[in-house]
Amino acid sequence: MPYDDLLADIAADMRTVTDRGRVADYIPSLGSVDPARFGIALCTADGSCHVAGDADLPFSIQSISKVFALTLALGKVGDALWSRVGREPSGSAFNSIVQLEREEGIPRNPFINAGALVCTDVHLAGHSPREAIGEILRFVRGLADDNDIVVDETVARSEQEQGFRNAALANYIRSFGNLQQPVDAVLGTYFHQCAIAMSCRQLALAGRYLMLGGRSPGAGRIVTPQRARRINAIMLTCGHYDASGDFAFRVGLPGKSGVGGGILAVAPGRGSIAVWSPGLNAQGNSQLGTLALERVSAALGWSIFDPVTA
Amino acid sequence: MPYDDLLADIAADMRTVTDRGRVADYIPSLGSVDPARFGIALCTADGSCHVAGDADLPFSIQSISKVFALTLALGKVGDALWSRVGREPSGSAFNSIVQLEREEGIPRNPFINAGALVCTDVHLAGHSPREAIGEILRFVRGLADDNDIVVDETVARSEQEQGFRNAALANYIRSFGNLQQPVDAVLGTYFHQCAIAMSCRQLALAGRYLMLGGRSPGAGRIVTPQRARRINAIMLTCGHYDASGDFAFRVGLPGKSGVGGGILAVAPGRGSIAVWSPGLNAQGNSQLGTLALERVSAALGWSIFDPVTA
Amino acid sequence: MPYDDLLADIAADMRTVTDRGRVADYIPSLGSVDPARFGIALCTADGSCHVAGDADLPFSIQSISKVFALTLALGKVGDALWSRVGREPSGSAFNSIVQLEREEGIPRNPFINAGALVCTDVHLAGHSPREAIGEILRFVRGLADDNDIVVDETVARSEQEQGFRNAALANYIRSFGNLQQPVDAVLGTYFHQCAIAMSCRQLALAGRYLMLGGRSPGAGRIVTPQRARRINAIMLTCGHYDASGDFAFRVGLPGKSGVGGGILAVAPGRGSIAVWSPGLNAQGNSQLGTLALERVSAALGWSIFDPVTA
Amino acid sequence: MPYDDLLADIAADMRTVTDRGRVADYIPSLGSVDPARFGIALCTADGSCHVAGDADLPFSIQSISKVFALTLALGKVGDALWSRVGREPSGSAFNSIVQLEREEGIPRNPFINAGALVCTDVHLAGHSPREAIGEILRFVRGLADDNDIVVDETVARSEQEQGFRNAALANYIRSFGNLQQPVDAVLGTYFHQCAIAMSCRQLALAGRYLMLGGRSPGAGRIVTPQRARRINAIMLTCGHYDASGDFAFRVGLPGKSGVGGGILAVAPGRGSIAVWSPGLNAQGNSQLGTLALERVSAALGWSIFDPVTA
């Protein structure tokens, strides 16, 4: 089946699902998003791009930004990053602080909040928060080849006002000496990076470097093939918090979810896929987004756990 | 480079490594194994088999048996198994009991000891321990097409005598009602299954069904393609305890390690690889085995996180 | 008010309480106890004994036996015991296994199950389980000056059949080398010791040595004054599992509760008090028993946190 | 032996001890305190006051201030406080955040940092931080009948600069809605309250209301007898973090320690005792202070676990 038909089919089916999960409502600008929304976009290795549903509506990428923050942090300090953040699944929720106490301020991986804060701290070194946010934005715009991507300032402000849990994490990590920039600067940068708004199409475009061994069609080499592979590995084992195992089991693709309802998934050598549906499942991942990716992966035989059939 | 040369190169290099990790010594029959041993075997999708080093010496497969036990348990009760054991990385050591308390007797995944005990319990239903062990043995022999595979009774007996931690786990799970057979029968079967002795060659042969979408060359269809894919996914996220993320990061293949120093790794559609070197790293996985698999995966471009290049 | 009137008043009031907690029903012989039962007995320092309600009905003392087991273990190995068991409140439930993992098999205190198993192990050294049980029974009979105290064999058998959680604890401790006798012997002795049946009167009599600086009216010196004081201290901080703080706050006396609904409380230099009411509160301590002791302590001004008014 | 001789003896002995523990050095103004210091003061129920050693040198009372903050918070909201903070020993270190995650922002007791922050939040309601600090200071001055007691602003400022762990706790509690005032105001007040400097003499005087059933000789009724008794109970079970059991076992008196090396201990109806020696043991409590109180308690027979001998 051609990609367009597959995506259209999935979008049509998703429109009829009644159990759509629960929209995050810890801040008003997320809580007011229409749960009926569903979008999907797929960019293939040969350069085509396919969309269905609300694929051109921007949404808050939230934790999906952790993929870009990790990429930038690795670009800045290379593998030295791994002395400050682990790469193991955490076995616990996205904002858990328990593991940090036992492991003395070293977050388990860069895709839980604690680990992402360390990446932001690395990225921030030598910059003002404003510059750091500008750099992330330029990076993402370059990857997506689209200068219209912006930070949703209302979301950023709300995050900041409600961000006590992240403030706790940042102060806690700082108490172990594993943040080097001022806590407020790290938090401010982090909240803005999470508040970047992108559409499925923009996100799928931005994710192409992970499918293509580190090279982005528009922007050139972003990371080495080895680093692209490794980021994919971390997305697979850690990209969905304490539901990462289930996502691997059902979808079989590296992926990173965000509380705004988006998921970016990567089929190495084949496709970069972005889905969006604001309702979340119990683990805080997009309910229909996961379902849709399961469909895509099965229909195209793209699970990385299936025998290769290039 | 031809497979034979690659394996020979790796085996030669491994011979010279001085930091070989620490041989498990909690029972004498494991502790007396020569740390200088190293073997590797690779069976390809097109049916060839390649070996180097001590690839024909049998060793105690230990936790690698959990892959076979999971396959048998799924064969017996299907996806109903997942109400009794999870499929998430545990974020903790192989024999941790902490997670069980919080999650009320449901082990995180089938590849930690607690989860493997539940698989054994499932497999045991309606059988005597002797029959159950016989069935596992026949299963493995069929997969490897080799009737010489046996249980090392000395190892099994020692495990039983020293198995207080596993007895604790089994009783604990039983206290939540998540074991249905007598605790002693489950433990007895489990200790024997862990004490199966296999060579790298036998193990690589036995693992072929996971590379080939569920079909074993000699034994026919073992599991459906979907199930093979899913077992691979669990091996990737949970196969190396609290070093699973690191193994995915470095090697990029589904794999399962055992405290005897063996690792079985699967490159879907490409190869089934078994390595053995008795020295373990800090997380209890074969130190040289991991290194060797990293070499194989990089040399052949077989990481599942690399772009497909069939 | 004379003691008899006070106790009669309390017993009368307790008869009318409707929210009596929940009778433990994990074994049938406990579950079948009439929740309407309430008994209380008070032995004073000057040798008088006062009772009300069902004070002469025997009940299963369960964890109250841990006080006697600790006394015997200290008698056997002295302060060397403290290298094998701590004396800190655990902050967790009576049968938690989590703490044991982090603290490598050293139970937090002798009044959680894990710690009591270590005391039983100490007491068992050089004896058969039968002898050890006989010794505990003789000890308790001597303290209470009553040879009619027996083990309820039905309870002991049921405990053994359902004792998976305790078997888990014992095996777990054993795996760290902190049990020296065979696991089954320790468990068997432990289950029998918990199954001792005593009336409130017998229990209050048995507890007199703790109120009298270590000397029991009938049996002579049991422990030194320092040891009596220290056992009292542990009863205060650890005697009610994760409700020990609340018991100290409300009652203000060293006390030890059992899942059979009994509590033994000690007012040093003043009284030994036993209450029994089978319904338990959420933390597993007798609901009316706690209430009754709060009344006694307040009425007599016996809280150890009140200014001394001898 | 007269009190003066006893204290002089102890002070003399303490001067010769070589293993004095480790002075807290997380802020310079604490780290620079001379480890040779030792002071002790004892106020008796009949109104006399006895001192030895450096009993008139002011030191940073730190966590001992939690006793006064609890008293003030109870004065403000009464037993409603107990819906926001527990009264159970925590079983963990003074600044642990783990328990807070599991128990959703309700600190275990008012004597760990998290619980003290809640007390400060209660006390702060309707005040500016400056007013709240003023009120605490006036309260303590009244209790000690000494207007020279001040906040050490250097310590307060250093605490604030290094207070990442407390900032983490405060933000974390706030994320569960269990702080109502601005996080920064709570922290500012808390750091100043901890930075109050008092001598042993002043501290022993201030603690008299807890020995005297709630009435302070100079200041009149502070709390009801019931509340005094209950504060004593919490000091006994929770006053020394995860060494509270050991302090009860060895000393047998309600007490509260501070990282500045001070301990306030209460013998109800008999004495209020303050000791100071800056070196801390592994659990963060004054090493010589604990030793000295063990001596006092044993010499005077004041343990609350000993038979009453008024």
UniProtKB/TrEMBL annotation, chains A, B, C, D:
Q: GO terms for molecular function, please?
A: glutaminase activity
Main EC class of this protein? Answer: hydrolase
Q: Which GO terms describe its biological process?
A: glutamate biosynthetic process; L-glutamine catabolic process
Q: Does the keyword Hydrolase apply?
A: yes
Quote the EC number. 3.5.1.2
State the UniProt keywords alphabetically. Answer: Acetylation, Hydrolase
Q: Does the keyword Nucleotidyltransferase apply?
A: no
Q: Give binding positions for substrate.
A: S63, N113, E159, N166, Y190, Y241, V259
Which reaction does this enzyme catalyse, per its entry?
Answer: L-glutamine + H2O = L-glutamate + NH4(+)
* HAMAP family, per the entry: Glutaminase (MF_00313)
* Quaternary structure and partners: Homotetramer.
Which family does this protein fall into? Belongs to the glutaminase family.
Q: What is this protein called?
A: Glutaminase
Provenance organism: Sphingomonas prati
